[in-house]
Amino acid sequence: MNIYINGTGCISPQETAQIGPLFSTLKEYDQVRLQAVDPDYKQWIDLKQIRRMSRVVKMGVGAANLSMEEAGIKMPDAIITGTAYGCLDDTGVFLNKMVSQEEQMLTPTAFIQSTHNTVGGQIALLLGCNAYNNTFVHRGFSFENSLLDATMILREGEAKTVLAGGLDEITHYSYQVLSRFGLYKKAPVKTMELLKSPDRGTIAGEGAAFFVLSPEKGTHTVAELAGVCTIYKPLWEGEVIGEIVKFLEAQDLTLEDIDLLVTGRNGDIAQDEIYEEVAAALFPDHPEACFKHLCGEYPTAMAFGAWMANRIIAEQDVPEAAMFYGQAPARIKNVLIYNHHQGTHHALILLKAC
Amino acid sequence: MEKLMEDLKSQIIEQLNLQEVKPEDIGNDEPLFKTGLGLDSIDALELIVLLQQHYNIRIANPEQGPEIFHSIRTMAAFITAQQKQQA
Amino acid sequence: MSVKVWIAGGGVISGIGMNLEENLQAFKDMRTGMTKMQYLQSVHQDAFPVAEVKADNDTLADMARMPETTSRTALLSLIAAREAWKSTGLGDISRYRVGFVSANTVGGMDKTEDFFKAFLPNPGGGRLQQVVHHECGAVTELVADALGVRHHISTISTACSSGANALMYGARLIRNNIVDIVIAGGTDSLTRFTLNGFNTLMILDQQPCRPFDETRTGLNLGEGAGYVVLVSDNLLAHIQPWARLSGFANANDAYHQTASSPDGTGNYLAMKGALDMAGLTPEDIGYINLHGTGTQNNDVSEGIAINRLFAPHFPAMSSTKSFTGHTLGASGGIEAVYAALALKEGIIYPNARFRRQMKELPFAPATAFSTGNDLKHVMSNSFGFGGNCSSLVFSKE
Fold this sequence. Notes:
By secondary structure, chain A is α/β, with parallel strands linked by helices. In chain A, 34% of the residues lie in helices and 20% in strands. Chain C is built from eleven helices and ten strands. A ten-stranded mixed sheet of chain C has the order 3-2-4-5-1-6-10-9-7-8, sandwiched between helices.
């Protein structure tokens, strides 16, 4: 069974909620923490409901709506979200009050909104959708697990359209804590120079990207989700290289069939090393595009990467802002996205033009 | 009573994050739940904490909510009665 | 797609026992797990009874063979998951394609809430070691790494239905030939975060909870972990199955963020969907392990949905949360183990403290423990916040 991407929606530090060519109004930053550009959420959510929603919930609802609008559907047969951190902002609000007020006079709203399934639940509530609803919260695999679950459910035959996506937010607290772990650059760096920066650390990001998947092609369909694969804590780069070869073989593809490689380089020299090794071993002459300098690093950034790859197939061109190595090929049919998060969670997604 | 009702309106707007609602938009006798402001059961729990925070009144049983929180006037009447009792 | 998925074993740690055998004994003895808070530090210590696992972190760390600084959520998880694996007799885990799908709602929050005390006044304060495993997925990985599972690892968090969804996803991984075995279930430790959160909703009972009783006034929180080992039909020769996971469904109530709809739409759809997948009719079900939290709202919605689906043939049913408390992300896993064991040994579990039938319902839960019942199919319900509703059906063959 082929699984088609019939609609996509993305809210990110780029102007991705707008109509127009990919990155035509490029947002360039000179900072270590990127925040999503908020569209007008009131187009999808009425004031009564919006007042309780944190940014990540709004991003999720917005991206989900964008993808359904593009797919031309009003009601999916399943809603599957992937989020590593869940609703961090409300978690922080409730934790802060609980600690500072010594467990007294707490109010329910932040707690209710802090659960990881809030976004999936809110999408269902706003749509009145009684269908399957699941939330994966497995770090750098959260988005990939949601795509895999969607794929398995579609193969069972009853569901015709599945809404699946990945999202995470960065908050004041999480940025402070993650900075102490040494994840980020010590000084601001220009986004268009990030991937060439010579030191450790990356930039923090956030965003939401949703996909309407179906075994039947829609009117705006340009690509097929041909495969998803996760590799947990590979022992060495050879294991990743081996898995990529196996993954392509399973799709009846050779290395030469890949027209464009999209990687999750994030400007941290230690973390980017494996992309160099994989490219050198398997794709020495392939053009390569990147996305984390545009959206920042977060556990579900792969969703932004997949969204971008789908748009690249639609436009049959790679915007200069995304091009990392070589030149955009004349014909872009097979796009392999290879991403890892923190060196422990490696994932592959293959999109095929259709 | 009038002053209390005005206070309550701004406190409710703040506590419930009622964006784009102004105190003068809320009628003293207008139902707060369902019709009118359209509040729900989560808001009722928020209002219980509001009474505790601002007026030091504890409501142990949420079932009392609908009666007390019917309108700004019923809330104010409840607060006044409780304060008299406490005094 | 029609690959059968068997339950080859299970493990549980909860407020009524450190392993499955102790849990079973507690049911036989009608010994429930709610007591005054002993291990969790909270200003509400005297206000709300809870069903804690009766051991401090040092003891649990010893049992789990993990450092004492490990999140309690991970310690509980590892103890129950090891028991589950051991009960299968499958031996060396590295010989198989194994997945670990674990649900939780709090992750390492038990450590994070301690960290925040030092961190809030000073962003450089607090020991980073306390937040390194904050994420739900990080807890799963500590356990997967200790078990030696590498083929597929995932974490699900859908509030109170999380554990049941872990079994569903696990079964799909097997049916799709991604792995042959999945250790699936859930874990959650008690935290001040959840205790205070549920307290703001005013649904915590200050007395031991009374699920499906007319006089019920709320739930008691519990903690623990429970896992089943799901095994593909192609390994059937290597196991003595307890039961088969024959049906499952997940639906969303789409009514309210925390409350169930008055007619239990999501509950009904989940139960109906699970029966349909199993190819069964309501009369085939011999026992239902209820979600049965003891809140006004849950029990009436669940009861009305059961009435709609099962009337006039009501199977035996009970809420084991009257013993274990509501273990949130763990509950679907723990109750799946109970359900599979029910089929293996013909058990109907008692519903503790039941006195008065609910006025809305024409049925009452079972109140005594019994074994040797002729059960062919049992159902386990897990419903939660966000409208998430899941039902599982287990069959003897």
